[in-house]
């Protein structure tokens, strides 16, 4: 097999990996990199017409956001993915196109993307020309998958983004009966010190901090990815509010979060058994909690921002790189009674990263904005940490080669150092190709 890195090498974002074998060419993921500017995979357009299939691991834009351009550039094949990933991808890409209006995307490309898809089930092998492909649960977000490819001799496994511990919505990623000669692994939290605390300890601390803000009359604002961190945060907050630990205040959902919640509800069969039974048997639907209020108009948003009441606001975007969060920061960021709660990864160059590093004045929509609110981070991660990744490697039968991608260079190098005595560990560079 030949593996070419058109994105995600030495960086978090724009995942795009070409796999070639037996006269078949498959692209794994096709994302963009969100930050101060949008960066795209470096794959030439003339390469796309000879691609036999695209397989996407999950719906986040750093794994799917380049698909509209690929179809606009003349790609004629299908995108293979799970049902929830297909539905969530359509929502996220529609929002991205509406906000960013990328020049290299045509209406025909968007229409073709919505039409040219093949929804596949977990664990059921399918063919893309001469390659056998299978998707297995990755535990990252709803519908996320690790991608297995077999060419008759060599077996490749790509983690996409993965998580191997239970969350409020999902079971851990699948680790039974895995067999691969080569692994392409994410390394978002693969550094030597990336060992996560227990989820309950983190949640208790976060809720206690939010509770203090609410009692003082402030607003707690949580920027979150519309798919994944938003649902995890909302279900957690709802549980604590129902139990009486959090004061009963409105929990507002802004951005594409409401649509993503409906897709979760419609695809609850992909969630944990406990959550399915809670909805189907007890008529207790946490995705439709009475504590949640969907913000659908600018007038509603203005009323919330200007109002005196305490509230919790969960809004996009997760890295504070656009979306309603920018308005909330402009209007509420100056007030020291308010609090910004960050729950996910913040890439270099994003406003979220600046705020985490202590910025007291930032530029939002061309205007300087002073930040008086406190900024705190509570790690509700949907990614595997160093310990989880090491456990995964040990469970893969026959593993020889490990390509380390989707991580900051320092973390990727630290993982390489930790496993190089056992595996042929490679930290690829952007544009490099590797034969395994």
Which labels suit this protein?
436 residues, alpha/beta, Metallo-beta-lactamase, Chain A, Rossmann fold, 2 domains, 22% strand, globular
What does this structure look like?
The protein is α/β, with parallel strands linked by helices. The protein has two domains: 246 residues, Metallo-beta-lactamase, Chain A, CATH 3.60.15; 179 residues, Rossmann fold (3-Layer(aba) Sandwich), CATH 3.40.50. 31% of the residues lie in helices and 22% in strands. The strands form four sheets. Strands 6-5-4-3-2-1-22 form a seven-stranded mixed β-sheet. The chain has a seven-stranded mixed β-sheet with strand order 7-8-9-10-11-20-21, with helices on one face. A six-stranded parallel β-sheet has the order 14-13-15-12-16-19, sandwiched between helices. A hairpin with a 2-residue loop joins β2 and β3.
Distance between the termini: 5 Å
Percent of sequence in beta strands: 15-25%
The quaternary organization reads as single chain
Which radius of gyration do the C-alpha atoms yield?
21 Å
CATH architecture of the largest domain: 4-Layer Sandwich
Uncertain spans: none
Number of strands: 22
CATH level-four homologous superfamily name of the largest domain: Ribonuclease Z/Hydroxyacylglutathione hydrolase-like
| Helical segment count | 14
CATH topology (level 3) name of the largest domain: Metallo-beta-lactamase, Chain A
User: How is the largest sheet built, in terms of strand order?
Assistant: 6-5-4-3-2-1-22
CATH uppermost class of the largest domain: Alpha Beta
